[in-house]
Amino acid sequence: MVMTDQKTEQQFIDAIKHRLDQSVDQIDAGTLSRLNSIRYNALDSSDKKYHHRFLLPVGAMVAASIAVIVFTLIQPDSSSSPFIAEDIEMLSTSDGIDFYENLEFYQWLDEYEISA
Amino acid sequence: MSETGDKNGSGIVPLPYTLQYDVLHINKISKRERLLEQRLELDNFLASVQKRAFRMAEIATGNREDAFDILQDAMCKFVEKYSKRNIEEWTPLFYTVLQSRIRDWYRRETVRNRFRVWFGSSSEERETDGMEKVADEQMCTPEQQLQNTRGIRALAQAVRQLPFRQQQAFMLRVFEGMDVAQTARVMGCTSGSVKTHYSRAIHTLREKLEGQWS
User: Fold this and answer.
1) Is B199 within a domain?
2) Does ipTM top 0.85?
């Protein structure tokens, strides 16, 4: 009884398998063409990624070079900067502003006393 | 210094410049050949599984376009992640990726169905039965074609009504002809679970289809 049931079950499975295999063999040309196209796309996507992998370090190097060039070109010239050491000292000191307003006078006085 | 050009006395004679260039050139060519060979192997493998994989996705979804999308995703993912693995591993890995994509489709479909219920449309409306295209140019009578088409359609519907794990076990064991261990690997479960799912799937399908398939 059990053997018969197993046999019937196996026949049923074989019949299903046969029909499924048949359905695969009978896939029409249009479907097959789309499947081929999907396959080529998948393979090409891999190639593109492969090439992009090499482009990444090259791109990084180009970007770094451009950054260095731009930084060098726009770096301010320290000799032409208005912020010279005296100005910084003047701004950071706690002396009254009157002193700096009469600074030219004090400089003249200093030179006069030296020459005298 | 020896007369053979062994300048540093190490015993290794350096190759002349032209020969060094030739060696580099040959290495480059062999590398390119290896890449082409790998691509050809991959192409052959995908060509060998594409029809069955498509049919599997189509039976699972009941929709041709969704089956194409699933196959596209699965192939791209497989090529990207697993193409460098050993060829012996490709089949189980590919079907693991494919089953993962089908499972994702089921999850999205569950969410979509909730919306369809709210908006009053049925998921059956979306089904385009690609199985009708089967056997249209084969050497069989129109009656046989009709019978084949009906048989496959009934099978596909019955399989779709199975719980997902039972579907997987059934399709991988019967359609792909995998053994229990391979199926367990693809499904990510134990052999015992595969046997249980498979047995239940067969039992349900026999109840539904035996009259048509015996």
Assistant:
1) no
2) no
